[in-house]
Design goal:
CATH class: Alpha Beta
Bound molecules: erythose-4-phosphate
Shape: globular
Distance between the termini: 35 Å
Order of helices and strands: EHEHHEHEHEHEHHEHEHH
Number of helices: 11
Low-confidence stretches: none
Mean pLDDT: 98
CATH superfamily: Aldolase class I
CATH architecture: Alpha-Beta Barrel
Helix content: 40-55%
Number of domains: 1
Radius of gyration: 20 Å
Largest sheet: 8 strands, parallel, barrel
Length: 219
């Protein structure tokens, strides 16, 4: 499963991408607003930091407007994915852009039927929002399982990009459900490797080595 950071904060992306474990980035208008910098300039910088897809979302809601914005977005870099909403105009734009070889991320997916329609429109990525489904008292991870089944049943190549991730448990469940990508805030990325027994074990190793003066000669 690929790891994407769900942020438009360039400094944050630079910091965590240095781990070599960040494959791509997703942004959306709310994240761009939060970052407070020119959206296109930020996307340019982000595309040069990570090796994989960087989603830049259109702001228009009509087909013509989306295509106009997509023209600007897709010129940013080869690894840009144009993000469109799961609406009729968004799916029309998805089909057109995909047909022209542009990566497309269809966002705001809340049902397996919607995911099926996005795949039929040639989406590179589908973004089901786990956390927002959970917030409604429904089963966000069930949505990932259902989309996996639909895509496998009909051999769709659209990648399931699990979004709206709120916890490390969500990430664990996405791994088990067969999501292709998980996009997460930096705070969750940071927490992925945390385990109290790792910290405890390391402290004991270091204490024992210090007590017996164990060294690595030549280092
Ligand atoms: C990613 O593509 C989505 O825009 C994002 O994960 C939404 O997350 P939220 O529900 O926490 O805003």
């Amino acid at each position: 499963m690929k790891i994407f950071l769900d942020t438009a904060d360039v400094a944050e992306i630079r910091e965590y991408a240095a781990s070599g474990l960040v494959d791509g980035v997703t942004t959306n208008p709310s994240l761009a607003a939060k970052a407070g910098k020119d959206y296109v300039e930020s996307l340019k910088e982000i595309c040069s930091i990570v090796p994989g897809a960087v989603s830049g979302e259109v702001l228009a809601t009509d087909f013509a407007g989306m295509m106009k914005e997509a023209e600007v977005l897709r010129k940013i870099a080869a690894n840009i994915a144009v993000k469109v909403p799961l609406t009729w105009d968004g799916l029309k734009a998805c089909a057109k852009l995909s047909g022209e070889g542009t990566m497309v991320n269809v966002t705001l997916c809340f049902s397996p039927v919607q995911a099926w329609m996005a795949a039929k429109a040639g989406a590179t990525f589908i973004s089901p929002f786990i956390g927002r489904v959970d917030d409604m008292g429904e089963d966000g991870l069930g949505l990932i399982h259902d989309i996996r089944a639909v895509y496998d049943n009909y051999n769709f190549k659209t990648e399931i990009l699990a979004a709206s991730i709120r916890s490390v448990s969500h990430v664990r469940e996405c791994l088990l459900a067969g999501a292709d990508v998980a996009t997460m805030p930096a705070s969750i990325f940071k927490a992925l490797i945390s385990h109290p027994l790792t910290d405890k074990g390391l402290a004991a190793f270091m204490a024992d080595a210090k007590k017996a003066n164990v060294t690595i000669k030549g280092a």
